[in-house]
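ping. complex inputs:
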Amino acid sequence: MSSIDTSAGETGHKKGPGVKKAKKLSTRVDMTPMVDLGFLLITFFIFTATMSSPKAMDLRMPKDVDDPKKQNEAKESGAMTIMLGKGNQVYYYFGQLKVDVGVNNFKQSTFKGIRDIIIDKRKEVMGRHVHDLGSPESACKEMQDRAKKNGNPDWETACLDRDFVVIIKPDVDATYKNTVDILDEMTINGVKTYAMVKILPQEYELIQATEASGGIK
Amino acid sequence: MTPFVDIAFLILSFFIMATKFKPPEPISITTPNSVSSQDLPENDAVLITIDSTNRVFFSVLSEKNKAIFDQVIQKLNTLRTLNLTNAQMANFKKTIAVGVPFASLGSLLDVPSDEQGKVSQPGIPVLDTLDNQLVWWISASKEVFRDNQRPLKYLIKGDGGSKYPAFEAVMAALKKNDEYKYNLVTSLENAPPNSALDVANRRGKSGGK
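pong. complex structure:
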């Protein structure tokens, strides 16, 4: 092991014969063990350090309303229903579910593909939007004013996507990860109105049939 | 060598200060990723954990005010007439997470907290809508926090592999207590480039309002 040379140099003045040289006590300490220990601690803390702290994601659920008259209704033209099934598969349809021969709007996708579908649908709904700023009870005006007040640079387009509603329906085989991922997708794509609803038996049967025919486990 | 050692000790002190030891967890959970960057509350919250086999655990997070633990278990004891002994109730504040039905809560609390990891916990029964026992845990904590005039947050920490029905049942228990706002515990991931959120984030950072 190396050590720091602490001996005083032999260059001191000669005090003449007979004068004993007083032994100088060195003030320098061998630091090697301390440094060794220091590095040991560094490695320990580097390995134990948890860099990514957990984060919290907000989720607001609506109240359960039994009275169908009081339930919020989504416009059919702006509604999109996303269902989650086994094996990270995503199913979706626009508006009302139609599964008659010839007209079938029940489609299958993946988490990768669903983003573009959401974006396209949102654009389509926004393109169809008609400003109804004339009427005094216009909800559109209210949304614009609120956005303006909050300093949103896009306040003029704040109400364009107000008809766009995504309904999320995870089935019993969907994992928690899938649920969080699709909720995250809403945040990523700026979907303002979305709801998590229980899946209908008819939809569940359709997913089961698709899964059986596609061999999805 | 001296500057080198100086830097080394600087790094050392950084890591010592930056390290926060993970609290011991009774169950290992791999949380899913999300783009949410909000920090997790550590006090005044209840944590509902769903593990990969869909077991549900309940714990109260209140490091600053330990009295809350006793009040919660006492409240639960009276709400459900569980006939817990004082010693059992005193042990609750050392218990990291409870994942047993009410019937075996007493025997879990008999075990010293450092040995509870060995006890097999089947999870709080939630899937039966008529006997969703999580409802009582939540209502007991809700009342205690209200009496203490503390805000209460609901954290749901689910394993990525757990199935949706367990999560749905947890939300049902919260809804029964008229609670509609929850925090899901996730790990951070970046917003995908050029998505609506990414664009908004970048604009926010560059200061353009």
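The longest helix of chain A spans residues 111-128.
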